[in-house]
Amino acid sequence: MLCARRLGGLGVGVAALGSGRAGRGSLGAGIRAQRVSTTWSPVGAAFNVKPQSSRLDLFSERRGLFGVPELSAPEGFHIAQEKALRDTELLVERACSTPPGPQTVRIFDELSDSLCKVADLADFVKIAHPEPAFREAAEEACRSIGTMVEKLNTDVDLYQSLQKLLADKKVVDSLDPETRRVAELFMFDFEISGIHLDKEKRKRAVDLNVKILDLSSEFLMGANFPNKIEKHLLPEHIRHNFISDGNHVIIDGLHAEAPDDLVREAAYKIFLYPNAGQLKCLEELLSNRDLLAKLVGYSTFSHRALQGTIAKNPETVMQFLEKLSNKLSERTIKDFEMIQGMKMKLNPQKSEVMPWDPPYYSGVIRAERYNIEPSLYCPFFSLGACMEGLNILFNKLLGISLYAEQPAKGEVWCEDVRKLAVVHESEGLLGYIYCDFFQRADKPHQDCHFTIRGGRLKEDGDYQLPVVVLMLNLPHSSRGSPALLTPGVMENLFHEMGHAMHSMLARTRYQHITGTRCPTDFAEVPSILMEYFANDYRVVNQFARHYQTGQPLPKNMVSRLCESKKVCAAADMQLQVFYATLDQIYHGKHPLRRSTTDILKETQEKFYGLPYVPNTAWQLRFSHLVGYGAKYYSYLMSRAVASMVWKECFLQDPFNRATGERYRREMLAHGGGKEPMLMVEGMLQKCPSVDDFVSALVSDLDLDFETFLMDSE
Q1: Strand 400-405 to strand 463-464: parallel, antiparallel, or no bridges (unpaired)?
Q2: pLDDT tens-digit series, residues 545-574
Q3: 3-state class percentages of the chain: helix first, strand second, coil last, to nearest 5
Q4: Catalytic residue list
């Protein structure tokens, strides 16, 4: 129930959103507006200067990470987890003794919240804090909370208190839709742990959950582990491209952008060379997932994973992927022919297109056709200008402003982390975004959004404000100039801020469904939609200014950039179809009819078109199989929905306030508290079909919105 990501139970830790009835465009009955602060400053200027050093901090009180008093020192994690565990025991007693009704659901949500507030925060700190003592303490807190979740997932009395509620038709009919959905989600999480089974099977389900967790960790480590090869086995003239280790060379990635074909070929063949231990780990992971799914009543793991999603079932996913593949096939062939032409031009001796070629040669074609050298664009995209652009967009669309707020001593984990207050023009303070944007040693190299605390309506009528972290990996600015973003990083910033706004505006009554705590194929819609705004000249023109001269970014540069993204875009999308199909087959009917490598070979040739390379096993590097098992298709389906929302709602006027409010009301406000397809229907005013999704994706490869807009002016 409580920690869906950890043990398939109580639903902790999946960046959340949402406002059911309490948040439809206003704070709703019973939620008091938050007062504003006089210490806020304009967001653009704040990001283009170094953070203020804490001159007065010598004598000020240390507040603790994220303002949590206990977390002023690593030992505070133990205090926080012990308090959460004590609260949990009391709440379990209350849940088991309370007569069935809405109060049961509120207690369950409070139980989930008490564990989430520690687990989500610790999940972030254990990978992001620069101090080992904090990381270790956070890791221990995660283990401790995980143990409690495992215990709760097998607590029959707790399960029966929820079962009694859902079995009483009169009580269920009296619940409002959001409360009923939350109760059903808790029950779904419970039953995936096998609590409805007899004692022996229940123990088997718990053992399988633990085994799957261990195998997932092992697979993730192996997926990123470098391969070694003896130096003399590599041609001498390419050895300098790789890390040297005595008599060996270390290959830690695909080197996809390397200009030398031989470097890319060597990296591909060595990095993807099969590892017997990793192969066994993957096979066991897939097998155990299948066993668990069958034990709790599903025919495949994919059927279990797709419950409650937009797609609903694996049959719909495969229909979507096959139709998309068919629509893409001619375009993909043309893309490969174009890549082959460029390869023949640069390397006439070996002109066959191989799997290590598309990323490099599509980049060469882009550079030749369009002058999109990042250094030409970066001066127009200072970090401060981009943040101000987001501020302008949110203000016009949603009546929301971003303000920089000086964090208290000890509140942030690194001095270059900025704190933003998210403020609505009439509703007041909605929540906080901590921006951890700059590179540092041991920081994960990923752009992502973390929920630290989910929003919820507390018993006293106050609203628990959501807190999130956005993580990027920007190089530190050179002396005298602000941090300058490439167009790709600017787009990533907009994407991650889409997640953050989802978390801020999903003002749900329950934290279990807050923010991005919704089905995976819906959770990416708000973030991908922001990419469309980031590529529209009318939006970019609001903020893209040369940081030295103030000159605006010329229209034709934005147009060239947008057009360049369509170069070989069909082949890129076809590759995603291949990955998503492979994921579905791996999580489909078991036992698998062939080895995972044979399935890879067959699927690659059918759904991608480039030849399989003998003695490689790309699937062993497919780390998304852990977090997105049976759900990798979500990126494509979310993009299809975002494309439809953009074209049908925002293309005509990306700043239309009425449309922005409708978007908040129909799609952002509910978090996971409403069926995702109903949210999509509410926004589009129609129920889209699989064919509609496919058409939306394919039309993005054609239509040049930028040129269309420029020609019409």
Answers
A1: unpaired
A2: 999 999 999 999 999 999 999 999 999 999
A3: 55, 10, 35
A4: 496
